[in-house]
Amino acid sequence: DPGGGGSCPYVFGWNGKEFIPDNNILPQSEYTGNENKIVTDYYKLFVPPKLDNVGIHPFGNRYVIKLKEFESELTSFDQAQLIAIDHSKSTNVAVLPDGEIIQYKVPFIINGEFTDRLSGSDGLVIHLRKGENITLDFRATQKEYKRSLENVRGGLLLGGWVNYGNNRTIQAPAPPPKVEKVGDVNGGWPNRNEPSPFTFRERPTLVYIPLEKFDRIVTIEVEDPAAIDYANLAVEVPPSYTYHNLKLLKGYHSYEGDITSAVLQNDEHITQLAPNETIDLEYEAPILEANMSRSFILIGSGKYMHVDGISGRERPKEFQLSQNHPNPFNPVTRIEYAVPVNVYVTLKVYNVLGQEVLTLVDELQDAGYKSVTFDAGNLSSGVYYYRITAGEYSDYKKMLLIR
Q: Which DSSP string do the residues of 47-72 spell out, in sequence order?
């Protein structure tokens, strides 16, 4: 159990004034068989970030999300990719665990005793204990779905969260380990068709569960406690959306500094997130047409592990300058170093003639593990050197730029 029953890292969305919690990410890191493996998590943001274009926060015209670790865990991120899906206002999109994007419409409403509690994500919920099930009945609102549903392809939209102690706060005591399946959904009465598994996260979210047989009667059975906040049938429509792989403009770690290159690609170039540390990620914001809606999918690659007693990073015991990575590089590389005391630090790059090319660091810094990104986009191929000076400590290393 790599997670040890702890919480996952969380993603926060910028709402124009402050960061608000969305949900846990990388829960697959705790699934059976994923111990110490890099996993990929596809998550449609439940709290989509608002475009920051009014100057309240110094982000400028871009989308911003924050990643934070709360519990006694150490998270390793390889990539944080944000996708914008622009779709018609009459449809919506969902993402499946394997990354497949589904575009759908909702021509049904719920019938019966659960109408008041499951018609909207409003906090009126149904709590299901282990082994319990409910059967829901839906009514078509469009003529074409009031007759035969034989050739309809679709699924169940289910809003809710795992219900460990009915606690929805991210500072709560550690819940049990994440599971790949919270329960099953069956089109029609129980045991009539092959069930479709589903899982929830720690806070409210909306999942799309494909049905083998599309039916207006659906049965939900849970294997772990769950709170259900919303339910409706969705009909898949031919994809007509626009897919934007948003450019990462900046990644800033509260401890390591600039980590843009580390989370830009899925390349085993890892950055770590210890308890109470954060990563701010800023992405480009392409123009959204007036008649379209925009949804966001966060693709995270990484892993986390539970470490007893960890409360943050330890202060380094000695000065250290690490070899840049990647090396050779083209044209961006990362240089890491450690300073055990508060000290004035300079970090400079030189060519083979000993001429200074660029100053990367020139400031008083607190003790800790540091990193800086070197972009050699304006330099020619060849050997370069970087030298650190911190008080009486000095060291240098060689790096190779290949264009």
A: SPPPPB-SSSSTT-SBEEEEEE--SS
For residue 298, what pLDDT is reported?
98
| Three-state secondary-structure class, residue 187 | strand
C-alpha distances (whole Å) from 263 to each of 131, 244, 246, 302 are 41, 18, 13, 10
Residue for token pair 């697959």: 28
pLDDT interval class at 312 (50, 70, 90): low
Residue 151 makes CB contacts below 8 A (sequence gap 6+) with none
Of 394, 398, 386, 384, the closest CA to residue 344 belongs to 394
pLDDT surpassing 60 at residue 161: yes
Say if residue 144 is exposed, middle or buried (CB neighbours under 10 Å; 0-12, 13-18, 19+): exposed
Positive/negative CA dihedral, 281, 282, 283, 287: positive
Six-digit token pair at 314? 């330890």
Helix (H) or strand (E) holding 92: strand 92-95
Residues 6+ apart with CB under 8 A from 57: 14, 64
Pairing of strands 217-222, 39-44: unpaired
- How high is the mean pLDDT of the chain? 86
The DSSP secondary-structure symbol of 151 reads T
Location of structure tokens 């540390």: 277
Pairing of strands 292-306, 39-44: antiparallel
Task: Say whether 141 sits in a helix, a strand or coil.
Answer: coil
**Mapping DSSP to helix (H, G, I), strand (E, B) and coil, where does residue 112 land?**
helix
Output b/e per residue, 28-43; b: 16+ Cβ within 10 A.
bbbbeebeeebbbbbb
